[in-house]
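FORM 7B - TANDEM STRUCTURE REPORT

SECTION 1: FIRST PROTEIN
SEQUENCE AND TOKENS:
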Amino acid sequence: MAKAKIVGTGVYAPGTPIDNAELMKLAGIEFDAEKLESKIGIKARHIARLRGIDETSADFAEKAARAALANAEIDPMDVDLFVVGTDTPEYISPATSILVQGRLQKGQRDTGVFDVGASCASFVTAFDAVARMMAGDASLRTAVVVGVYNMPAYIRPGDAFGWSIFADGAGAVVLSRTEDDDPSGYIAGKLVSDGTQWDYVGVYAGGTRKPVTHELLEANTWGLELLQRLPGDRNLKLWPPIIRALCDKGGVPLERVSRFVLTQINKSVIGDVMDALGRPRDAAPTVMDRYGYTGSGCVPMAFHHAVIDGLVRRGDPVVFCASGAGFAVGANLFTY
């Protein structure tokens, strides 16, 4: 049976890094930088808006896709499917993936495009969907899946929580359809959700329920809103059983997994999750120290650096696991 194999990776983040001291000056906020660095793990990030850079989600996605295609040595014209996973799209409509296809292929092609919106689980959900599509459709030879985040575009002035945590960035993978005798390829995915928890954190204005109006802007109820505090132990409770179930489903013992690439929201939580799994903490690479929290971009971004740093090699089993508000959780198991 055919399967999807990662043959290239790429990342993009706008401008030069902004450390915590500079962030306080640029955003006009105050926060506990020592706690943010020691517990959460965030020391710097990239934010186009604060650097005065005229780039948004489609720009980030395009540049990460170009980097991944260059890494894979594949011509953009040979791509059969572009998929973008994000909850910070360029527009409500058209889909961000449509813009990426147009920029890379310059016009009409027999190329599929669609976006996946599952909050910060958008990339892993898209990866699972595309891998399944490629396995069942021989015409899908090459696909690009991008995770992109531009939440700073929605952060209101004075929001210390938002500015200190969220950042801009994108990560992309190039997938190639390969046969079962290839040791590399996608093995299994797992999705979990609880839509009764939609009203914790999100961007609620701009859709059909809450259109942007003068009254809404004057009330300062637009952009990123934290309606309820998220439970601090949510991911610690969610990720270990999901990862164990995924490994059982894929027939790969947990102890054989080389690397666990998890949502880069909290370095301390990632360490606790690895302890709960009985695996070494250094088996979970982190990049929030240099990128901040980049939502659906963070898993492919962390994976890219794990590959180029030699932490992941061909033949290694890898797990991705990501959580998104709402909530949605996705996990992938594959052999690199």
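SECTION 2: SECOND PROTEIN
SEQUENCE AND TOKENS:
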Amino acid sequence: MKVLIVEDEPLAAEHIKSLVLKYESHINIVGMLESVREAVAFFRDQPAPDLLLLDIHLADGLSFSIFDQVQVECPVIFTTAYDEYALRAFKSNSIDYLLKPIHFDALATAMDRYVKWFQQGSRKQTQQLVDLSLLRELMQGKQEEKTYKSRFVVKKGEHLASIPVEDILYFYAEDKVTLFKTTDGKRYLVDPILGEIEEQLNPTYFFRINRSFLIHHAAIDDMISYSNRRLKIILKHPPEQEVIVSREKVTEFKEWLDR
């Protein structure tokens, strides 16, 4: 079996890969892509895999736009961080869906379902079940009704602290861990990966500018034009590394600031 993984969070992609190979060690992972652009290029130039594991929210947009640009002739298992209501809605339309954080039992159930379809000769029929208009309506509805996280519980030595979201300037990934800095310059370690945190926060206030940084608009001290049509961001209580808005995010970032 040939499987393609499309996931813009490197740690999440590796986790999914390990679960797939745990399910069946002989599965061939034909690619691990990070964006709509890369996925479109793959399906234009490469033969379709047997199965596609596809994150709904990618760095350069919703993955549904892949289907608008190329023919995807393989079954799809979507992954994202939405709740059980969305999970039931996807499954009721014969589209499998894995809720993040993904656990082996859930992935194994989805893979078993795919194998059953494949053995019954239903592979081509599966494509007719991907109703993009229905998916878009569902995701827009979830965005409108979603309740966003208001605080994070963190460790301070042997103690716990509850930090309100409004006190957080930015989240960032560093050395395979996720941290955030607060308005008083303190930093804290959190358990979820950056992609999961992004799903939990109100997008009116927080924006994912690149693979490593998710920032609050109040964290921005200055913005400077940078090479290759990118932007350099100067943050309050800045980290050691440069903070750059990736080229594919610049337009969306400017629109977000101008809301």
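SECTION 3: OBSERVATIONS ON SECOND PROTEIN
Residues 2-145 form a domain with the Rossmann fold fold (CATH 3.40.50.2300).
The first helix runs from residue 10 to 23.

SECTION 4: SIGNATURE
Preparer initials: ____
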